[in-house]
Amino acid sequence: MAQNRKSFAGKVVLVGDGSCGKTCLLEVFKRNQFPEEYIPTVVDNFVKDVDIDENTRVSLTLWDTAGQEAYDAVRPMSYTGTDLVLLCYTIESQDTLPNITEKWLPEISNYCPNAGIFLIGLKKDIRDTIDPLVEQDKIVPTDLGKKIRNDNDLLDFYECSAKTGENVNNIFINSAKFIVQERSRTPSESRFPCCCYSDTGI
């Protein structure tokens, strides 16, 4: 069976505002452990294999980036050769949403216009947490995330929680499926013929 295994490789970059939860998402996927302390990132990357089924393995090169404005000049170096961008935002505040269309989508379009884009709402657990520091009326509703995805023709949309692990693996499994689709298509086939890679998307 192993002799018939198909192997693929692809690059996935996570972008989004600073402290929105990108690094925690990657740490949970990488180590299956939620980091209790904040880990500031400039640029970091690692490779992890994802088995889609017993015959298909995808080596994902995953890049974490800094979202703060101070790193705007450094971040573009991470975009070279990107297959898929995970555009992340935090569910805990609608105040950050304008950056999706005003900053991140233009930046992605400029530096990796041929990459696919998944929209990822992070810190989903905040909806079920009573936290005096969180303004409940500013929490991003799921329907608003869906609207942003649809209005901007993004490939897929997920909400997840690195803290509880909810939907973390699904995001990267479907990222791997996207890589397989891209590597398997012929030159005459249209790019991104499908906008959802499994029923785990929202």
TrEMBL record:
It comes from the Eukaryota. InterPro entries: P-loop_NTPase, Small_GTP-bd, Small_GTPase, Small_GTPase_Rho. Pfam families: Ras (PF00071). This is Small GTP-binding protein domain. It is found in: Cell membrane. Keywords: Cell membrane, GTP-binding, Lipoprotein, Membrane, Methylation, Nucleotide-binding, Prenylation. GO terms for molecular function: GTP binding; GTPase activity. SUPFAM superfamilies: P-loop containing nucleoside triphosphate hydrolases. GO terms for biological process: small GTPase-mediated signal transduction. GO terms for cellular component: plasma membrane. Belongs to the small GTPase superfamily. Rho family. It comes from Anncaliia algerae PRA339. It is a lipid-anchor. CDD domains: Rho. Its main location: membrane. PROSITE patterns: RAB, RAS, RHO. Gene3D superfamilies: P-loop containing nucleotide triphosphate hydrolases (3.40.50.300).
